[in-house]
Amino acid sequence: TDDDVSDNDPKEILEKIQEQKDIIANVRSRPWSMKKKLKVLDAARRYVEKHEGRLSKTNGYSEAGKEVGFVGIAWRKFKRTANNVCVVLTPWDMRIKTIESYFGSGVASYFIFLRWLVQINVIMAIITTAFLVVPEILVGNTTAGYKQIPVSERKSKWDLHTIWSFGGRLQHSVLFYGYYTNDRVVGNGYRIPLAYFLVGIATFAYSFMALLRKMAKNSRLNGSASSEDDYTFSWRLFSSWDYTIGNQETAENKSAAIATCITFQQKAIVEEQEKEKKEYTRVKLLIFLRVVANILVLLLLAGSLYSIQFAVNRAQSLENEERESTFWEQNELSIVVTAVTMITPSLFEVIGSMEKYHPRNTLRIQLARILMLYLGNLYSLMIGLLAPGNTNIVKKLMSYDRINGSYLEHEVFKNKTAVPGQRTECWETYVGQELMKLTIIDLISTVLTILIVDFIRALFVRYFNRCCCWDMENQFPEYGEFKIAENVLHLIYNQGITWVGTFFSPLLPALNVIKLTLIMYIRSWALATCNVPHQRVFRASSNNFYLAMLLFMLFLSLLPTVWVIVKHPPSSCGPFRNREWMYTIVTETMDNDIPSWMKKALGYLTTPVVILPSILLLVMVIYYLQAIARSSKEANNRLKLQLHY
């Protein structure tokens, strides 16, 4: 009891705490009645909760830990404190752990993935802000004519209609490509055009490195835990409970997590049942249904691409009309892209139900179709915006006036030739505006979908279920499912838009940070109030599966930016104006700013004498590492085989 130990003797209190913890850990094996076990367990927990916190503030642990020395104890306390600080500073850590305890690790993986994307976008925003936005504000040429708002637009520069379309003051700001200066050197030697080019490369390079590092880390973790996958039911049934838990709330969370994980074990049961099913007797009908389903999917994909191209062409034709556009006309392109992105995956799911595939294969096919849809939408949009033949994109015919040594720009725009010296359009800013609007409208549609499809639907089911003749909670309309894979693909699509648009709008990653943060809170709230986990979650929902798709999206997002830099002439605004190609800023810097000895060194390094041996050495290193990996894998397989026997 508490009275048997002096309150002023930390050593005795420490011994008593250790004794009570031993009782908590071993009470199940004691030959006592259940009533006595519960009574003793309750008393032991109360004693630990009462005295352990107070003891940590005294020198009790120091007295008991003299064997390891004060330095060792101080180091342990420092590490424990550092770990606690890291947990506190980790964004949304407790929120995600609560979700995991009630909905399982599969649902939590979505929010962990979302948090990691926020971190990626924060770093990208820091890079673009530190090396582009801040230098442009501090040392950029703010008096340049192309940075000034035209007289005809000054009255409406802060109108709500203008702000929504990112026009007026927002268009002529550091938000977009066209505002940045083209002076080769500004201030005390800072080169904004070169910085713009290098930052565009750096954002993609950082994303590649962070993504590959994350995949390697997950592979190591999955490899170390692979042995637990062999006996899933045994591990879950006999080894799930943590007998060191002494807190009631923690125990309830752990119980909820175990119950959820056992519920999700139905995926393995379904797989076993599917193996035992008889072959489908009506083979011809099944083949016919699958052919029809694929034809419908192709038609939907073609219709999606056509609708986006139609919206792009319509937006460009409206630019030729000399009248003020309506709200719908200004935002038609973004609304069409968002609507196609939100509606088509649900149609894919309806079509997939008629194919009668194995549930795991159904999920994989569904994900592949959605990914094709997102990629098609993104590329269709970018092709429509960047196609050289479009009337909204400026076609420049540059001629050099050898009499006065200045450039004369002749633009073909709206089928008219602009007068030299007249203010010209900037297609890079136009692309940035459209991607900004697409990001905003996608966020609004996501919020509205959650409120209407999930929240209002849940309210209807909850309060009208008792008045209905069937079980509305388990049948139509039932609660909305939290579809992990589809939601993750939507995040990947959104990140693809950010990667493509960062070159045209340097602050787009900062906007995406705000968007993802709002999605984190809204999704977690909807999950806790009006969603239920997806009925079937298969191995396709592993983290590396998501990361592999994200890596694929990153590679495909890089291609339009590379094409713009290498093959598309820049317009008459922004950091690369008056240049034939964007990448010529690198050759200009090498010709004007690099010493001659460095030019010779770089020229020597780019000769075949250096490149060919380097490639050969790289191939040999890769082959050597692959041989080591194969031998390690074979050794692991042999060790696993020995453990089985």
UniProtKB/TrEMBL annotation:
The chain crosses the membrane at residues 116-139, 192-212, 285-308, 333-351, 371-389, 438-456, 545-566, 601-625. The keyword Membrane applies. Signal peptide: none annotated. Its main location: membrane. GO terms for cellular component: plasma membrane. It is found in: Membrane. It holds the Pfam family TMC. GO terms for molecular function: mechanosensitive monoatomic ion channel activity. Keywords: Membrane, Transmembrane, Transmembrane helix. Residues 426-541 form the TMC domain. PANTHER family: TRANSMEMBRANE CHANNEL-LIKE PROTEIN, TRANSMEMBRANE CHANNEL-RELATED. Belongs to the TMC family. This is TMC domain-containing protein. It comes from Ciona savignyi (Pacific transparent sea squirt).
